Every structure is written in C-alpha cells, then in structure tokens.
C-alpha cells in the first residue's frame, strides 16, 4: 500500500496486479484510494533515452535533412525526444526542422506533447491507432515523401513497410526502449497468483507489457490456467484496444474503458468489481465476491479463501440449489472455486463445505444469506422477484 488518501471502500478485499512500469505508483495509488490491495510487478522496464547515440545521430540527420511528414505516436515518447535533444543542445534546431513538416499525431496525449513545444498539428488520429494513421497517409499519397515516425518502445516495422511499399522514404525513431523486468522471478510468481485464483484483476497499460507478461506465463506453464481465469473469475483490463490486443489474440476477455486513459481504467475497474451491473442480487442487498471477502450491500466482510470461494460458487449460479458434493467438487477442481485444471489442492470434503458455510454466515452477520434447503444443499437467499428472474421456467 502507498498510503493513498481513501476515497471509497468499493475495492476492499480486492487484490489487483499491475504488471506496469511507467506511472505504476500513480496507478496503484488511484486503486488503493478505493481500498484495493495492489501488487506492482513490471513485466518490462523503460530504458532511458538521454545517452542513446542512435537516437541522437538520427536527430542530427533529421535536422540536416528535414522530413515532409512527421508521425508522433506517443506523448511520453515525443517529450523524451525533446528532452534528449535539449541535453544534446539541439532542441531548438529540432523544433525548427519539425515545424517545416506536416505533423500527424496518434491521439490527444501526443497532441498535447507536440503543442507544448509550440508546434502546430495538422491531423489527429482520434482512434489512437496506427491503422488510422496509415489509412490517412495512404489516402493523401506518400510517394517520394520523407516520413519520420516517432515510435513507442518496440517500434512498428509493419507500419514502416506499408509506407515504404507506397513509395515513401521512411525513418523510424525509437525514443524509448523496452528492457527486461527488474525482477523476473516476481513476474513469474504473479502469473502463478493469477492461475491459482488469488488475484481479482490484472491491469495493463501497454501492449509490449501485456505481451511480455503472457510470454512469461507461457514459458513457465501457467498460461492455460490464466486463460481459464480470464473473464470467469479474474478481470483483465487494458487502457486501450492496442494494449488489449495481445490478450485478445490469446482468446481472453478484456475490459477496455471508453476513454483510453489511466483514470478511466481505474473507474471502469471499480464498476466491474463493485458496480450495480456486476452484482449478484440477494435478499440482503447486492453482493460482490472478491479474493479477500465479500461486499454485501456496500459493506465489506473479510473472509478466508475458502469462504470467498463458496460464496463465489453460489453467486455464479443465483437461485440454484447446490449440493454439498457439488460445492466440494467445485472447490477441488472448478474455475469459480479458484482451482482450474492442474491447480487443485486435492479433494474437499462435504464436512469442510459445512464448516465453511457456517463461517461465512458468522462473518457477514446474516445467518440466512446462505440458505439450507433440506436434503438438497445450499443456495443464496434472494428476493422473490430476483429469484423468479433467474429461475428457468418449470424449475
């Protein structure tokens, strides 16, 4: 925890993983203000640009031979480029050279960074995608044009090839580079945490970071279980569609906010984990189950892992009576019980289910939240209208 000022308790009991480097402290604080417990484990690091000889050499060539078009893909990258030029003593010359070109930017962050140094912008890709930039350039025509692209950490060879095939002379500038994670063992452990159902949400802010985290999971064998958890038990979130693409390519369900911003992702996470649309209705108010307990009618109740899992199993089947043996089986080997294939702790007994149910009833202070249906099993207590809404016809 960072000691962030508390805004709400909506995420009390939620364990959220942030495999991010840049702005990780700010991100963690924003979530902790709503009660979340965060783990920051960067899957990559950003390599400083000040002593990047390749970047400075390319900057000198650009000043000597100004381009016709400049594509700025990220605000942080453009500011880093300006900082490097300032350290090199060539910032004024660089700005003058860029001012002669048509400037295209990918989204409002890049626009703000360019405007900050006094340059005019000719066009903005509102979708914040490279595909929209390519489409615009090809429609305008680039044959014989000198095009400079300021890339993110991985570069974009496909974009360069497309423009070169259209006749452009393309120069790519990688302003900041992705390096290895500061703690590879921690990254590996976090994939196991997700695979074992110990994390409520995993949030990404860059496509390279998401790709690197998935590669680690694949390398150590946790990826199949991680994929099972995605959407069913663990929320995977991304700041935008580009960041989400490596996850979606693996068939994973990803939550993306309407506005591709860090603050918007925090708000969307609160809605997903504590909002009315994702709650399970009960006779005692809306229920959200998380790793550390349950949020019932706005009040958090701490529970042990088995207690949270039993509630999650019942909440996944609202209105349905589940036998002790069914719950025990799910606790031993089910997704909602946090035990995907290969991650079970061994069989759970029916007696253990009875003990866990008693503990949950005591912890939440509502003995009838989990109802006992004579000779059949347990179900969540629901109002008659809610029960009718979820019960199949003829049940």
Description:
It comes from Corynebacterium provencense. This is OmpR/PhoB-type domain-containing protein. GO terms for molecular function: DNA binding; uroporphyrinogen-III synthase activity. Keywords: DNA-binding. The protein is of the alpha/beta class and 395 residues long. Helix content is 43%, strand content 16%. It has 16 helices and 16 strands. It has a 5-stranded parallel β-sheet with strand order 6-5-4-7-8, with helices on both faces. The longest helix is centred in the last third of the chain and has 15 residues. The two termini are 47 Å apart.
Features:
395 residues, alpha/beta, Rossmann fold, Arc Repressor Mutant, subunit A, 3 domains, five-stranded parallel sheet, four-stranded parallel sheet, 16 helices, 16 strands, 43% helix, WH-like_DNA-bd_sf
List the helices and strands and how they pair.
Blueprint: E1 15-18, H1 24-32, E2 37-40, E3 45-47, H2 53-64, E4 69-72, H3 75-88, H4 91-98, E5 102-105, H5 108-116, E6 123-124, H6 130-140, E7 146-151, H7 157-165, E8 169-174, E9 177-179, H8 184-195, E10 201-204, H9 207-220, H10 223-229, E11 235-238, H11 241-249, H12 262-274, E12 287-290, E13 293-296, E14 299-302, H13 305-315, H14 324-333, H15 350-364, E15 370-373, E16 377-380, H16 384-390
Parallel strand pairs: 1-2, 1-10, 4-5, 4-7, 5-6, 7-8, 10-11
Antiparallel strand pairs: 3-9, 12-13, 13-14, 15-16
Helix pairs in contact: 2-4, 3-4, 3-5, 8-9, 8-10, 9-11, 13-15, 14-15
